[in-house]
From TrEMBL:
<keyword id="KW-0560">Oxidoreductase</keyword>
<feature type="domain" description="Luciferase-like">
    <location>
        <begin position="1"/>
        <end position="337"/>
    </location>
</feature>
<feature type="domain" description="SCP2">
    <location>
        <begin position="478"/>
        <end position="555"/>
    </location>
</feature>
<keyword id="KW-0503">Monooxygenase</keyword>
<dbReference type="InterPro" id="IPR011251">
    <property type="entry name" value="Luciferase-like_dom"/>
</dbReference>
<dbReference type="InterPro" id="IPR036527">
    <property type="entry name" value="SCP2_sterol-bd_dom_sf"/>
</dbReference>
<dbReference type="Pfam" id="PF00296">
    <property type="entry name" value="Bac_luciferase"/>
</dbReference>
<dbReference type="GO" id="GO:0016705">
    <property type="term" value="F:oxidoreductase activity, acting on paired donors, with incorporation or reduction of molecular oxygen"/>
</dbReference>
<dbReference type="InterPro" id="IPR036661">
    <property type="entry name" value="Luciferase-like_sf"/>
</dbReference>
<protein>
    <submittedName>
        <fullName>LLM class flavin-dependent oxidoreductase</fullName>
    </submittedName>
</protein>
<dbReference type="GO" id="GO:0005829">
    <property type="term" value="C:cytosol"/>
</dbReference>
<dbReference type="InterPro" id="IPR050766">
    <property type="entry name" value="Bact_Lucif_Oxidored"/>
</dbReference>
<dbReference type="GO" id="GO:0004497">
    <property type="term" value="F:monooxygenase activity"/>
</dbReference>
<dbReference type="InterPro" id="IPR003033">
    <property type="entry name" value="SCP2_sterol-bd_dom"/>
</dbReference>
<dbReference type="Pfam" id="PF02036">
    <property type="entry name" value="SCP2"/>
</dbReference>
Amino acid sequence: MRFGLFYEHQLPRPWSDGQELRLYQDALDQAEIADRVGFDCVWAVEHHFLEEYSHSSAPEVFLAAASQRTKRIRLGHGIVQLPPAVNHPARVAERIATLDLVSNGRVDFGTGESSSSAELGGFGVRRAEKRGQWQDAVDAITRMFVEEPFAGWSSEYLRMPPRNVLPKTVQKPHPPLWVACSRRETIQFAARNGIGALSFSFVEPEDAGKWVDEYYRIIASDECVPAGFAVNPNVTVVLPMMLHEDEATAIDRGIDGAHFFAFALAHYYGPTPHDPGRTNVWEEFQERRESRGFSREQIIANAETLNVNVGSLRGAVGTPAQVIDLIQRYESVGVDQISFVLQSGPNKHEHICESLELFGTAVLPHFTEGREEREAAKAERLAPAVEAALARRDPARKAPSGYRIDEDAEVARASRSRRPLGVEVRAAGRRRFRQGFYNLVHGRTDEQIERRFGPSAQRLFFAGMARAFDPSAAGGFTGELEFQLTRTTWTLVIGENRARAHPGPASDPSLALIVKTADFLRILAGDANPATLLMDGDLELRGDFDLAPRLSEMFGGPSPY
């Protein structure tokens, strides 16, 4: 088992001069302590425009600074957003290689697509295209690491002529690749691409074990075709942590930070309205934490086994003995690394430092003996599968013979790849429709909404959902989804590549949603959060609960993760 620190660089309001400076300087001090006491990796996210939740928009700078304050700890991008509108692939390759050089080969390269509306909208990235952009960028970037010169790229999302992308990484063929994962399907996706799974799903150890088993089954199968030129078979989970010898003290110091982390995550990755520069997420958290399931009173010091999700994301907030037990449960099911979030919400720097020191003396020694031998045995066991997987990967290419830089011709080719205006017009039309629908629903009573949107209007909505179905977000699911509304029932039949809607109940629903018509339409309009409705008892789910978090993305909406 390996251990990491995970940084969002959270900064709840109210803000004052110098707070961001202190936030970053404290984080560097913490990274230095983590390096000294034996942590294995420090991870930093890349997020943009997510006020209070994450002020970490340039993780490569933070990690470069950390590289000069540390000696052995690895430096993980958790993750780099790969849509080209956010980060051009060549710039990503250059930054990763430079960080690998200044850190003397200590980089882990985590990748992701981005999912928040604030970021996708801010950079003009279409949600339906972000997975394709990720796949395209990973393939191009890893080729930039190994091809000399890079042989060029021409795709729907990226057009780039041959260039020698410099510098090259210390680690060969490139740093270990990871991808952000939030549910079972993305864990499978990581395995199929031969990439480490960086999981943010906060699952209990016993549930994580099922994911780990499936991950390694795919790694060892013909399904694994590496996205890069090396395979990184590892699974990491992320958990909140605050450590103290006295359980009540650990809870008092750490539970608000753990709860704010989860609340702010739901704020930005759900339909909650946000006004840039004005919405106060911390204030909303304090006002709504109990109604959202984050009551402080439900977290009781009882010296019993920690449960990750019971008590709304307590995680590893407790005593050394409790955290040792929790880690052992993850280790027993095959999890390779746990990365802890300590710098979250209002958590204090001095308490974080004390927790790191205590972890190094009271927890870490229980997991270091024989670790290298176990990892070597794992590598030997997987070596044939890794070799077979790499043989399925398309090899590095050679640039066209005699290629010479020609600015005018290259710019002309790039301009021809731009999308037609009609695509932009249709996208703008969809945005206007959604805003108009929100205006019709917002502030209206249940009776007003149901009177305005009867069965005929509902038919149009469900037909629209069927047309918006995205097979890539379904994770291979086929079956029936049933929606029991106030006076009507509708069914969506999901096939491999398309969906269709019909009135009436399903014959064998995989998942049934029971909700008032008005609340269902509020969800569609972005005026209600399904998680809140579920916790308040206004939304009932029957069947496969794992399907529920996927529904939004399956039908063209934002990811809940």
